[in-house]
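ok trying this again, last paste got cut off
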Amino acid sequence: MDHQFNVAEDFLLDDSFLGYCIGINENDVQHWEKWIIENPEKRPAFDRARYIFDTVNGQQGRLDVEVNRFRSLLQDHITRTATDISPAKVRAFPRWRAAAAAVLLLATGSAGWYYYETHIAGKTTSPTAIASNDVLPGGSRARLVMGDGTEVVLDSLNPNGLLEKDGTRIGKDEGKLVYDGSATSGDQVTFNTLSTPRGGEYQLVLPDGTKVWLNAASSLRFPTKFTGADRTVYLTGEAYFEVAQQAAQPFHVQLNNGLKIAVLGTAFNVMAYDDENTVNTTLVTGKVKVAQPNGKSVVLLPAQQAILEKDNQELDVSDADIDKILAWKMGMFEFDDDDLSTVMRQLARWYDVKVTFEGPVPDKHYTGSIRKQSTLSQALRILKTAGIQFNIEGKQIIVEVK
């Protein structure tokens, strides 16, 4: 098969390679990353094909594009620039092969290559340079603070689990932290705090059976057993809840700004990061009430979102894009007309990096998908197709948009 990939055009004809360029098909990404290591002599044609993809795709202001859509963009690019192509140079190719060859001529000629290197790729986008200073994606990482102040790094939790002073057993089951309060004794309430770092996420099963997915740079404070009239937990950051139904004991999520979310049995997402301009509560199933300290409240129905504007404390309800909001839980970043600052804040939390903008942040918006298991350079390569230039310096990303 290797002999078929001698020039950039050969790669652009391959659906799997286009899937790799798009970056959201894990099998394609793994295949081609392994393939190019095993076939280093193909690197020039491989890189050139990838640059052509980035050039054509980057004209759309998107972070990704489907294979068929890319072919349409490619054909459109050829149509718009046909006067620059000598018919004799493409006459021998079939229609699609001619299109690929035409873009090859446009994007890899001396003038076109200079334009790409200077205005699209930037000074730090060579694959070799990026790979030598890459940042791995986040993973399942968290720290637990027990009732007596003991801190436990959960990456290295003893297989036998932990035992709280009130008798609660804490164990791990398929990567989740699971609380078993069946042996608890006494009336004193003991609180634990589960915290994820930047670049970490974790799953938790509370003593009542409620399931919690904790996103990066977040924390949840909760009792080792629920007593009294309600079940209250305290959240900073972002989490998704699947609440165990107990009609006689409603479930409450308390946020730092005083906002309280009350539910009976439901699934919902809360995004309450300090560095975001809004606090968003999104209902998937069931029914929730979102209440402000001033007494104002709203009741959400499935697929609705309560948005609290931090600057004026206005609380509004709108329809929600559930797939986009829950993408983080499914291993993806999903953007839909999001501004650049929003995009970079999400990446910064997941890759545990600092983002610095050179000059004013451009008023540009982006749409597309990025796999959370991509390395930082892979994620930034996808962003680059939408016109974002970057430089990785240790744990810092310097961003400039042309």
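PB: full thing came through this time. The radius of gyration is 25 Å.
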